[in-house]
Amino acid sequence: MTYYDEPENSDQNTEAVVSTIADPKAAKEIKKFSHGKPLTTCRVDPTGKYAFAGAEDNGIYRFDLQTGEKVVYLGHDSWVRRLDFSSDGKTLYSSGWDGRIGLWDVEPAEIAEIELTAAVEATDKEEAKPAVTQLQAPDAKQMIDAHQGFARWVHVGSDGKFVATCGNDRLVKLWSAKKMKLRRQYRGHGRHPYAVMIHPDGEELVSEDLMGEIFVWGIRDGKPRAKIDASVMTGFDEKFQADMGGARDIAFNKDGSLLGCAGISNVVNSFAGQQDPIICVIDWKAREITHHLRTQENKPGVQWGVYFHEAGFVAGCFAGKSNVGTVEFWKLDKAKQASPDTKDEAETPPSKGVESDAVVEGKTTDSYEQTTESPPKPIEQKPFHVIKVDKAVRGLDFTADGRRFAIACADGSLRVYQL
Rg of the Cα trace of the chain? Predict the structure, then answer.
């Protein structure tokens, strides 16, 4: 397992150098871009030139981080919850609450200037007003009907071969990235899965639902591999009889040894913001939660983001009940060593590649590995640094070099910070 401590070898020395450059305590807001509707999520493209954000007007907006130019991508019929990029950085993927997955050019060949309101000539009582226009990208290259109900998530694997999605039909799906052809679908979640990620090794994927249940699936054989106990994130709202716990964001660290699940716990009345924010850190090999990352002030709200920085810290973004937010940073304390591996040694080895276009459904039985021993109690940690934001923060992403990050806020602002 990988936890961050003082450097002992050349790789860790490199990490230490990065850490001295990327210091959260030195973070300053350097740019702020505005939009007329609350933002729902954001991602920075691999080049670091653009930040893309979803908004509550159903649009996706591309902000040029240098010039501030804003371009709208239209095609979804509801809010966009998740964005990702192809391995070459040329295609943007979007998942919408209309059940669809969109594929767009990051840099379209042509961008149209659309007139929204006509110019108004001056009168004796009013000054002249110029025409209001917006820059608009072409239609999506593809729009795929991926899920019944919300398509809550889209993620492109690090090798660029597969795209994973999940939605309100309780399905996790695996698509070929090149043609977006369905290759696998996995059944097993009793509630709506909210997020899914492909492991960096390309052999497994992980999904978490609104009851905090975490499933690990084999990519090549389509079989369930494990179920991770994340009962701390269970959240059934008794008042409204709704499943509202679980993850709002999940992410791996670079080598895939750690998984972070950001979301909520202790749901009382989620529609009134009465729940606790949490980030659970999971040792991937042991399939166990090792850390509970808590906000500094323990205020009700939601953790909407988690990011493992190569400098050795974890970043998260928080939206509070009172519509204020934070970006918080943790340095993981060393955890007690867990068991070497919980995988079943008799597990059927994966086949060598995907040989068929047929859809293979994962088993719905409890054939995955579940340990009977009690895992070590997770370490409860507070952040070492907090950036206060005057509006709720709904999304967080870093540039590839780790020197800047962008946040999406409920007032429609996209804010950029320099470390």
Answer: 22
The pLDDT profile of the chain, 419 residues, written as one tens digit per residue, is 333 333 334 444 444 444 457 899 999 999 999 999 999 999 999 999 999 999 999 999 999 999 999 999 999 999 999 999 999 999 999 999 999 999 999 999 999 999 876 656 767 777 767 768 899 999 999 999 999 999 999 999 999 999 999 999 999 999 999 889 999 999 999 888 999 999 999 999 999 998 889 999 999 888 999 999 887 887 655 554 455 678 899 999 999 999 999 998 875 555 544 678 999 999 999 999 999 999 999 888 899 999 999 999 999 999 998 899 999 999 999 865 444 444 433 333 333 334 344 454 554 445 566 555 667 899 999 999 999 999 999 999 999 999 999 999 999 999 999 99
First-to-last CA distance in the chain? 27
Q: What is the pTM of this model?
A: 0.85
**Apex 391 CA angle, 388 and 395, nearest 5:** 85
Residue 309 · residue 290 · CB < 8 Å: no
Using CB atoms within 10 Å of the CB of residue 355, give its burial: 0 to 12 exposed, 13 to 18 middle, 19+ buried: exposed
Domain range summary for the chain, segments of one domain joined by +? 1-31+250-332+380-400
- CB 219, CB 204: distance < 8 Å: yes
- Among 216, 290, 277, 215, which Cα is nearest to 245's? 277
- From 356, 314, 352, select the one nearest 333 (Cα to Cα): 314
Contacts of 401 (CB under 8 A, 6+ apart): 48
